[in-house]
Amino acid sequence: MNFPLFKFGFFGDEVSLVLAFVIGIGFGFALERAGFGNARLLAAQFYFTDMRVLKVMFSAIVTAMFGVYFFGLFGILDISLIYTTDTFMLPQVIGGLILGIGFVIGGYCPGTSAVSLATGRIDGLVYFIGVAAGVFVFGELFPLIENFFVSGSMGNVSLPGYFNLSYGFVVFAVAIMALGAFIAAEWGEKKMAKKAEGK
Amino acid sequence: MKKPKIELILAILLLFFAVIALFAGDPYSSTLKINPMELSLNSTKGHDKVTPTELAELLIAGDQEYVLVDLRAEEEYLQYFIPGAINISPMNLLNSELMKNQRIILYSSDDLESGKSWILLKAAKYKDVRILSGGLDGWKNNVLYPEIQALSENERSKISQISFHFGGQPKSDAVGSQTVSPDLPKIQAPVNVPLSKPKPARKKREGC
Predict the structure, then answer these.
(1) Residue A169 lies in a domain
(2) For residues A18 and A21, what is the distance between their CA atoms, to the nearest angstrom?
(3) Same domain, A184 and A146
(4) Which of B22, B99, B206 lies at the smallest CB-CB distance from A168?
């Protein structure tokens, strides 16, 4: 079997949209079950009282990474056909900061706001409207910021390519980083719990 | 004794896969394997070739569903290439921008070089690869300067039109004395243009 199925023409645009819908629902369901529909839980991240976002995200990253890496290795998945975005260093750093500020202030990222909205939360609705408005304003102002938007293009780079490391080593390093993050998160949570008791 | 916690089991699994990955190598490149049955089935079913006339008709119809690849040296390519062809050296074939799901038509001077490259691409699991049968010589003899003496009237005019379309001239008995220039028609070499097919307007944005 050759994956990705869509790129190999096993199905067309229509089926791919249906599948995207099903996978999206599944993704949203998983996020909701992890508690990501609750802004308080998400914001707790930044106060180190509940690190579940970090744990869930790192688990997802590591699982997906192992899947893509090993399926690629066994020749089941053609990694070269997977779309990855080009790197524009400064614009993406700024974009990340804007998203992070929004996350701290509102307690949601775009995906979790949709999850929150689906569970009927008012703050999720407001946040979602904000996201839509932001997208609209961005689209309207795009001609003004287009030069910046495409500045500093580094092309399609990856960590192994850029630092001249082997793919296996990067997989190993990310896995170790995740393990470190899990341990640090548990430790931080315990520490903050003690602090809370002390008050 | 306490049962081991799920976190601990997952952490050990994580470490296990991480260490395997450290030594497992590059998921992009692996040794190529050839499936003899698949290759021979492709050949017997004729899924591995395009005749010069078929290619000419594809080109005239403006079919954009395939990539035409010229495997010859760059100097030869710049002298003449079949319209729309991009130049890729057989050495760089696997590292080129060709995608495994693209329809690829290979040609060289004759069938040998394109045949070798065909096997290489098929082994690397490129889905639809064909060679131009007869290579550029076949293109010259069948499209640019075809023999049309033995053909019926209909065929003759069709083949002639194809020939004229690509700047050639059919060899005809009507003007038997006429010497047909063996030179290839001049195709303007791309100047300062990267040797690749123009990218389709803009890549659809993917991702979240």
Answers:
(1) no
(2) 5
(3) no
(4) B22
Q: Does domain B41-139 have CATH number 3.40.250.10?
A: yes
CA dist., res. B59 & res. B66, Å (int):
10
Put simply, the answer to whether B21 touches A81 (Cβ < 8 Å) is no
Min CA distance, A168 vs chain B (Å)?
Answer: 4
pTM of the model: 0.59
Q: Does A143 touch chain B (CB under 8 A)?
A: no
| Chain A closest-CA separation from residue B2 CA (Å) | 20
In chain B, domain spans? 41-139, 145-176
Chain A from 6 to 65: CB within 8 A of any B CB:
7-9, 62
A171 touches chain B (CB under 8 A): yes
Mean of pLDDT over chain B: 78
Taking the Cβ of residue A79 and every Cβ of chain B, the question of whether any pair is shorter than 8 Å is answered with yes
Residue A146 belongs to a domain: yes
Which of B7, B27, B125 lies nearest to residue A79, judging by beta carbons? B27
CB contact under 8 A, B15 and A7: no
A164 in contact with B, Cβ within 8 Å: no
Q: What is the pLDDT of residues B142-196, one digit of tens each?
A: 888 888 777 777 777 888 888 888 888 877 654 444 444 556 666 655 444 444 4
What is the ipTM for the molecules in this complex? 0.71
Give me the sheet containing B49-50, strands edge to edge.
Answer: B49-50, B128-132, B103-107, B66-70, B86-87
Q: Does A169 touch chain B (CB under 8 A)?
A: yes
Instruction: Verify cis geometry, omega within 30 degrees of 0, for the bond prior to B36.
Output: no
Question: Cα angle at A178 between A173 and A180, to 5 degrees?
Answer: 95
Q: What is the DSSP letter of B129?
A: E
Q: Does the CB of B207 have a partner CB in chain A at under 8 Å?
A: yes
Q: Where are the beta strands (DSSP E) in B8-102?
A: 49-50, 66-70, 86-87
B49-50 and B103-107 as β-strands: parallel, antiparallel, unpaired?
unpaired
Residue A141 identity (one-letter amino acid): L
Rounded to the nearest 10°, the torsion over CA B118, B124, B128, B131 is -10
- Distance from C-alpha of A66 to C-alpha of A58, rounded to nearest angstrom: 12
